[in-house]
């Protein structure tokens, strides 16, 4: 019997095992243990996709995914990447008795762009990577586990530490892509990044940064996007938000002071940028961090983005 299809729940769902969970967090991770006829044996159906990305690794059984006009199955060692906005239609493969997969839902940082360019099948948008080597499968599964357990750690820095592990996972995936060749960053791009990081509170112009690294503004802009995957302005905004999150978690400084420290004279504008990138306001982010409790509460250890 094929997995049943369940409708999206209309009410706020606090359990990521079930449909309707809002995924307002910056990162959510878990294990989905699907057995034929079990509670979780239904097809995920999100025609509009999600605001964030999902990466998953099959660790047992087989799953089935519709990607564009094609439906295909995948199994042990297959890693899938669903970009933001990509339709979701997947579940246990009809001929398989189970499908266990580890997954991470996340909002990517701007400089991750190069690591999120995965090969897809013709007409599809879902990225695919196959890990044939058992040692590689164990390494990657452990990274998924570490992201999950670190995020559940209950510390103020748990999310940042989990995001660091996610960066490692994405880089390792990138390295294992067929035809991968490591390309070192241009030292002038690195110098531009360092200069921006050292002066986050200043509204440095492109001309100033270009002069600092001895390039023309147009050449720096082109080289930066080519090597970092995002514009210089977007990268700077990423760094500002990262620093603001750290300060909100680790200091009692007023939001207005933090806004100024990361380069925003207008607190309201800073709050709009922060909410757009993180999903909540600076005040809400600080409040949730101060609670310092496991955001999963008493939920089971296994979770599924349903």
TrEMBL record:
Feature: compositional bias, Basic and acidic residues: 284-296
Organism of derivation: Pseudaquabacterium pictum
Location of the HTH araC/xylS-type domain: 190-288
The UniProt record lists the keyword Transcription: yes
Molecular functions (GO terms): DNA-binding transcription factor activity; sequence-specific DNA binding
Gene that this polypeptide is encoded by: araC
InterPro entries: AraC-bd, AraC_XylS_family_regulators, Homeodomain-like_sf, HTH-like, HTH_AraC, Tscrpt_reg_AraC-type_HTH
Region (Disordered): 284-306
Protein name: DNA-binding transcriptional regulator AraC
Pfam families to which the protein is assigned, alphabetical: AraC_binding, HTH_18
Keywords attached to this entry: Activator, DNA-binding, Transcription, Transcription regulation
